[in-house]
User: Which sequence fits this backbone?
């Protein structure tokens, strides 16, 4: 009988956590009950499956076990007077006949967590916790805030839902558009965490990417007249199309200029580009549509050297006007480096104040290296290394730092289209092509 290792059970947990929590929140209307019951079920799986093997349907087993644990807990906590009524309620069928515009449990939970009485950051953080199964530390990294700050934010959000008696029900159709911004942010951050995992030894978490795309497709069916929904779906599809080319056989990071474009998924590229064209015809630009257009420009280029960096910079100009954030400005600086040279880009980067963000230091390091300022570049690489929790990114940055002592780097006075950027949904890592020293000796 096949058995599962703890690591394999962890992957099941990641893949099924959101579904299980969504089903239990719908059944019991209590976040803490649902989360604790699902955690108990996975604890039981860790104790049992390594010796007995997994059940025929691991997801079904987790949901059934979690539901039983929740029932047991609520029965223990029920007072003597209402115990019979509580038992009758909990023994009722778990499938409810609730109808409405949102029928998928996970998408329904996203919309209910994005209640307007909660601040948008709390909406997004809570839903990432419940649906994505992300840890508090992972969510804190996504928001660029300290972990204790995020923990307090999650506790407050749950407390507000409980104290205000916010109902877990399908929002009315007129209420959907006002919650759309937060819902799109949630789906986007779930995809980002999958595209480049915040921790662990694997660059990509395929389960989160797949779940985000699934939710994006559901949103597109639910709200076909919202161009930002199409924009987000296009962005995710175009980024996901490169997955097979983004890592080596042993899991190492492969940046965009070095990727084998024959490995890109042509069907996903075509679908994403068609969505971008549809967005352009609507002429109602938004941040997700512009990011999708940037990725479409990359997918149009038959090779890295043919990338239209001028168009990409123009699109980033539009994006920065719509969403003037330092992260967007950081991404834009990469395009500026390709068009106007690394010195122009470095002046922009140094003013951003993103010291806690590892990609800020990685981009600074690359720009400094291209300018021949190797000692400063080495310091910036070290700063980036200690600020990333992903081993694949960390190893790539280590190799870049080591290469500084084994290559001659000539200062660059202009943009080099051959230089590259891993153009993910919201993050970039630069990489130049240093010239090897003939003698091969460190300085």
Assistant:
């Amino acid at each position: 009988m096949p058995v599962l290792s703890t690591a394999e059970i962890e992957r099941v947990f990641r893949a099924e956590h959101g579904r299980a929590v969504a089903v239990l929140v719908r059944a019991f209307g209590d976040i803490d009950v649902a989360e604790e019951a699902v955690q108990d079920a996975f604890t039981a799986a860790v104790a049992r499956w390594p010796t007995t093997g997994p059940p025929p349907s691991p997801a079904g087993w987790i949901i059934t076990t979690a539901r039983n644990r929740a029932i047991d807990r609520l029965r223990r906590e029920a007072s003597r007077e209402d115990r019979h009524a509580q038992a009758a309620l909990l023994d009722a069928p778990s499938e409810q006949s609730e109808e409405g515009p949102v029928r998928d449990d996970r998408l329904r939970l996203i919309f209910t967590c994005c209640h307007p009485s909660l601040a948008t950051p709390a909406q997004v953080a809570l839903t990432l916790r419940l649906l994505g199964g992300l840890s508090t530390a992972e969510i804190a990294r996504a928001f660029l805030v300290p972990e204790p700050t995020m923990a307090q934010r999650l506790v407050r959000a749950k407390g507000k839902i409980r104290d205000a008696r916010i109902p877990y029900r399908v929002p009315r159709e007129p209420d959907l558009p006002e919650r759309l911004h937060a819902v799109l942010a949630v789906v986007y951050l779930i995809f980002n965490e999958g595209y480049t995992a915040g921790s662990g030894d694997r660059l990509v978490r395929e389960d989160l990417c797949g779940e985000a795309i699934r939710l994006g497709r559901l949103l597109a069916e639910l709200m076909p007249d919202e161009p930002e929904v199409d924009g987000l779906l296009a962005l995710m599809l175009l980024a996901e199309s490169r997955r097979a080319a983004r890592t080596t056989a042993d899991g190492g990071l492969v940046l965009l200029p070095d990727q084998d474009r024959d490995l890109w998924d042509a069907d996903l590229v075509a679908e994403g580009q068609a969505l971008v064209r549809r967005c352009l015809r609507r002429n109602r630009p938004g941040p997700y549509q512009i990011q999708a257009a940037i990725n479409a420009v990359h997918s149009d280029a038959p090779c890295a050297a043919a990338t239209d960096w001028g168009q990409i910079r123009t699109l980033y100009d539009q994006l920065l006007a719509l969403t003037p954030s330092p992260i967007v400005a950081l991404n834009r600086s990469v395009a500026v480096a390709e068009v106007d040279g690394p010195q122009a880009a470095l002046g922009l980067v140094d003013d951003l104040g993103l010291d806690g963000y590892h990609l800020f230091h990685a981009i600074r390091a690359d720009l400094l290296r291209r300018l021949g300022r190797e000692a400063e570049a080495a310091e910036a690489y070290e700063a980036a290394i200690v600020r990333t929790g992903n081993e694949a990114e960390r190893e790539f940055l280590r190799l870049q730092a080591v290469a500084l002592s084994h290559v001659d780097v000539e200062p660059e006075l202009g943009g080099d289209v051959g230089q590259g950027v891993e153009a993910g949904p919201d993050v970039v890592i630069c990489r130049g092509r240093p010239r090897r020293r003939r003698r091969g000796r460190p300085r």
About this structure: The chain is about 65% helix and 5% strand. The longest helix spans residues 6-28.
